[in-house]
Inositol 2-dehydrogenase (Streptomyces monashensis), 1240 residues
Amino acid sequence: MADPDVERAKEAVAGLAGVSVHTDTEAALGAPGVAAVLIASPGPAHEEALLAAFARGLPVLCEKPMVPDSGGALRIVEAEARLGRRLTQIGFMRRHDAEYRRLKALLDGGSLGRPLMLHCTHRNVSSPPGFTSAMLVNSSVSHEIDAARWLLGQELTAVTVLRPTPSSGAPAGLLDPQFVLFETDRGALVDVEVFVNCGFGYQVRCEAVCERGSARIGAEHTLVVTTGGAAREEVAQDYLVRFAAAYDREVQAWVDATRRGEVTGASAWDGYAASAVAEAGVRALEHGGRVAVALAPRPDLYATRAEVSR
Amino acid sequence: MADPDVERAKEAVAGLAGVSVHTDTEAALGAPGVAAVLIASPGPAHEEALLAAFARGLPVLCEKPMVPDSGGALRIVEAEARLGRRLTQIGFMRRHDAEYRRLKALLDGGSLGRPLMLHCTHRNVSSPPGFTSAMLVNSSVSHEIDAARWLLGQELTAVTVLRPTPSSGAPAGLLDPQFVLFETDRGALVDVEVFVNCGFGYQVRCEAVCERGSARIGAEHTLVVTTGGAAREEVAQDYLVRFAAAYDREVQAWVDATRRGEVTGASAWDGYAASAVAEAGVRALEHGGRVAVALAPRPDLYATRAEVSR
Amino acid sequence: MADPDVERAKEAVAGLAGVSVHTDTEAALGAPGVAAVLIASPGPAHEEALLAAFARGLPVLCEKPMVPDSGGALRIVEAEARLGRRLTQIGFMRRHDAEYRRLKALLDGGSLGRPLMLHCTHRNVSSPPGFTSAMLVNSSVSHEIDAARWLLGQELTAVTVLRPTPSSGAPAGLLDPQFVLFETDRGALVDVEVFVNCGFGYQVRCEAVCERGSARIGAEHTLVVTTGGAAREEVAQDYLVRFAAAYDREVQAWVDATRRGEVTGASAWDGYAASAVAEAGVRALEHGGRVAVALAPRPDLYATRAEVSR
Amino acid sequence: MADPDVERAKEAVAGLAGVSVHTDTEAALGAPGVAAVLIASPGPAHEEALLAAFARGLPVLCEKPMVPDSGGALRIVEAEARLGRRLTQIGFMRRHDAEYRRLKALLDGGSLGRPLMLHCTHRNVSSPPGFTSAMLVNSSVSHEIDAARWLLGQELTAVTVLRPTPSSGAPAGLLDPQFVLFETDRGALVDVEVFVNCGFGYQVRCEAVCERGSARIGAEHTLVVTTGGAAREEVAQDYLVRFAAAYDREVQAWVDATRRGEVTGASAWDGYAASAVAEAGVRALEHGGRVAVALAPRPDLYATRAEVSR
């Protein structure tokens, strides 16, 4: 394990056999018995760690964002393309959520016809200290960016951000909520309400409106309590409650694929596309109006839609 | 209009043209222009009023219970059978409720196969003063008695009443809630939770479990408010909210049928059967165990199941 | 009654006492006993009929759109303002729907804080012959235009229309669905999915997202049938099913208010504002981008927000 | 591992280090490194295996039924009581289900007042070959028997079984569905619809009706698809879908407790009580009427309600 904070790292691995602790990525990757790499450091540290793993041919599970700026993300794509084989899985955990997977299977099955619109809601009870207006787009909405690309199997080509008067429940100066609109390369529309200081719950919903039907996920119903003139359902307060199983499956899918010598899940191209769209989104937030997304040509390694569609 | 309380009656009809007020039923029925009779007096007064209407050949809409005791109810059935034509519609308003009608149509359509069980819930916020343990059966559950007979097109043949420890929210001495079980002449089962001091809402639900599917009504969803960690739906506090439209349709159906010279809705036989089953229910409540329902032979006037089924 | 088709009109009023049939508005309004006017003719005929009613000082219930073009609508506003008293109620029936009224009461009550966004869905199974792309905005969305103004008590100040690739289920050439965005004079956002050939149901939903909670209406739950591995709820196919009671209440509210010598419901100003916003919406649809709404100054007769807020 | 079918057992453990396969329980328990025992053999083999584990002082996770006949189950209780410490956890997995645990916490919290009734539904798509009418009670309903004792913290004191006309979807001769009623030592009522050939889904629901409110679980809402005039939700077809996580937690809770030198979950007393109640239920099914449950005195080892309540 590599962590600049050696003491915390030692505490985390206490009792696990065969684990050594390092402050340096290179030293950690060179330790005996290292067969794969999980990168969970802050985003700006990802590029170096990914390139180090590539140099040793090690499979990597990298937390999102792959690399925050699209320039760095493109360098990763190009480096992996030069290797000629995929080593990278990006940690977009919604692809591993049971509800999202059912929605994906339904859309891919084609019974509802072509998807026309996705209506998305992304609400948090409150934002952590230091959360900026840009982070609503490039951190919160980045989940919807990947989910939309994956669900639709389409690239996002333009983004518009609307800024209603901020909620008095948001910290001063934070543009919260925002309403983000994406257009796709096949004419679909994706809208996202992002509201990270809504105060009342963690709610992630998605409705796909198609030519012959609509489908929606995210209406959790568990315990319904009726008392005092009202039926009441608890709403999750935290993403860990909603997505705990998805995180587990994400890591398990990576471990399983790695053992088979394969790579699954979101690719480095997906990580790059998410960064490029998020960057365009931040520009749209700051300057108003519609901002087109310009993606570099897709290397042959990611040529098929399979990476997007799976 | 006939009412022992003349002042109240006069107030009620103030401003309506062509309405005269009487304290005496006979006088009221004999007033010029009376073409039909609506009986909304307390149950014990119904028998006399019904017979008076029969004597004049006037169609009647009679509030439930038709006649509280089954002996009196049978006299009405026999009197109408002697007339040789139906004049009576009993005011079981659930037969006119949109949800119940959809359930009825579904069951009659046969797509779900034979009904095996009905699970019913009947809850009131609180009971009025003077409400007795027997009234939970012969007043509250009488709605389910008629609804079950009508939905299933079957007669109820036995009843068992279970008495859990009463709620501390019920008036002292009132056996509330009760759990009432009916068996039918074709082997179906009907269970009813009746809880008239539940404190939290007016809730009427019915789930029909059939050979190839189940169907349920009564889960009203209107305004959902999410705040403070919970999604909250108001629950109706009053039967008028839930069944207002059914009452309107009941009276309208009677007026329309009367104009066409027809009688529709629940018949005197339905009124009699409800009284007989309720009487057996009260015996089951008082003596414990299962009590069989003994119905008189059904007169030819009510020979088909049409009256039950429609 | 005035109708250019005398035969149809005579059929409609057959059996109603004291009703005469005319082909000419003036003649109809001048008939003895006319105390109020209900205008249900096509939109282009409204202006003349409204001015004729004003000339006689008769209260009017006018179907929406009050006058299709905002110029004509403004002439009505000015004419009524010159009269110095309100005679006009516009037939926006959602203001009379039980669910909308509960949502309005909740928002006005203030417990959820300031409304930030309204997310609206407006779907029809199919559009009638001759329905144009512009009519999605100025006929279908006009309901949301009025509902949003009324629910929020705010004017709409700008509109943007997004046009996803049309559904293959829509008639050739029809831009269906559309996604319409409104901004308000106090910084709220209103988005409307309008999809008039969705094929699967008539669905009208509204979610209000506020500073301290959200509230939504339009999730009708009635009969739930579980069979063959799925729980299934019928979805209404027609606006008459969803809004039948609202239409009744609208007319009743008008009759009651007229009897009291009052005017209630949506005003001529509301009718004008709806036309002006719809016109801007059609321009936004045709030319792309954001179009500002320019309203004439509000006459003193409509000075308070009461007309909007009621 | 002990299994009479050595080949299958060898296949099951292939690739797991330090696992030896035996046909004989004694030999397996005596193998080096055995620290705990998981019994997943058919019920009749449990008694011998439990006693063998007791003889070696090994903690045991025993699948339900602990011992099918209450006589044998009581021998286990007495043997463990003689040991003077708990070694046994019974595999009632619902105690580990997230929804049941929330319901339990709510009832224990007391905000809804005393529980008066539990309404339970237990439906399977179809029963396996050889399933008998008695097994509806002693295999299927045994889950509700334990869940009711645990949720209420009360013993079940009497049972009545009602037998509607069997569904034509059930194998010939099988009394399916059944309606089972339990009374408790503090006057609560528990009713269970058990229907193991319902054909349409695996549905496990529970509604607790209390003095000041009701609470229900089991209304799974995940993907809602609206198409062709109906909103449709898939219903799970299999208990593994519904309770997969509960099974995992059950085993994990046992492993964790065992590592801490503790025993958690359902006790041998719970296993005995379940067998005794199920036996009374089968008598009630076969002979009709109400059958009282006679439990042996509870040994001090299980003296507190903690085992029931936790």
